[in-house]
């Protein structure tokens, strides 16, 4: 009480009046925020209630120095709803974290796959460049012919092991003929390259083709054997 006269004649029961005012003000302030906020912003809520009480109780000769909400006990239904809401929020945060982790994992995998593809492409390009350089050196044509002949024979041996159908040359019992046919295919392809204007020793290719005296590609035959 700061003014006894106003407290005596301004209101019939000043203590009761200020209690009712405090309760009304508290309900008004609580209605402005959510229930979760009441637990987090209790100090701010108390300050606002004190300010509202003093504005109304000034004419009563009263002044509120402090107001404190000691406990908030919601109904059982509200408690249950709050618990469900809290559980839902925790589940939501967990799902967000899980999705972010999965997104980062996919991004890392995609980055790794892209780097692997780039590395393979660079290795392939380097291999092609090295092969192209090797064809410019002396004796490269003969080395390539030998390599193709080896691969030709190896391909037939692998095919015989891996499938029920075998593709065989017309004279499978003569390895020399098989090699000659492989070289004939290579020389035919190489001469086509020279005809299109690609640089290279055309004379050497023609001489190699003539010196071999090989049968044409049409001499190749096929034989199907089904187990």
From TrEMBL:
It is found in: Mitochondrion. SUPFAM superfamilies: Band 7/SPFH domain (SSF117892). The keyword Ubl conjugation does not apply. Residues 3-101 form the Band domain. Residues 196-227 are annotated as: Disordered. Keywords: Lipoprotein, Mitochondrion. Residues 129-189 form the STML2-like C-terminal extension domain. It comes from the Eukaryota. GO terms for biological process: mitochondrion organization. Its main location: mitochondrion. One of its GO terms (cellular component) is mitochondrion. The keyword Ribonucleoprotein does not apply. InterPro entries: Band7/mec-2_domain, Band_7, Band_7/SPFH_dom_sf, STML2-like_C, Stomatin_HflK_fam. Belongs to the band 7/mec-2 family. This is Band 7 domain-containing protein. It comes from Aegilops tauschii subsp. strangulata.
């Amino acid at each position: 009480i700061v003014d006894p006269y106003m407290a005596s004649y301004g209101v019939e029961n000043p203590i009761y009046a200020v209690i009712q005012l405090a309760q009304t003000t508290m309900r008004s302030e609580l209605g402005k925020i959510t229930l979760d906020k009441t637990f987090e912003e209790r100090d701010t809520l108390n300050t606002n209630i004190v300010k509202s009480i003093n504005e109304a109780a000034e004419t009563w000769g009263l002044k509120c120095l402090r107001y404190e909400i000691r406990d908030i006990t919601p109904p059982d239904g509200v408690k249950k709803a709050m618990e469900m809401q809290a559980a839902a929020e925790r589940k939501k945060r967990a799902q967000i974290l899980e999705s972010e982790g999965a997104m980062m994992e996919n991004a890392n995998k995609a980055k790794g796959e892209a780097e692997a593809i780039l590395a393979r492409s660079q290795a392939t390009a380097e291999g092609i460049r090295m092969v192209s350089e090797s064809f410019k050196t002396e004796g490269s044509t003969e080395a390539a012919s030998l390599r193709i002949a080896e691969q030709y024979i190896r391909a037939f041996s692998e095919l015989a092991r891996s499938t029920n159908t075998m593709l065989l040359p017309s004279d499978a019992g003569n390895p020399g003929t098989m090699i000659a046919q492989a070289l004939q295919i290579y020389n035919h392809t190489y001469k086509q390259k020279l005809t299109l204007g690609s640089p290279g020793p055309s004379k050497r290719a023609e001489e190699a083709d003539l010196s071999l005296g090989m049968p044409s590609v049409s001499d190749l035959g096929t034989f199907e054997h089904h187990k």
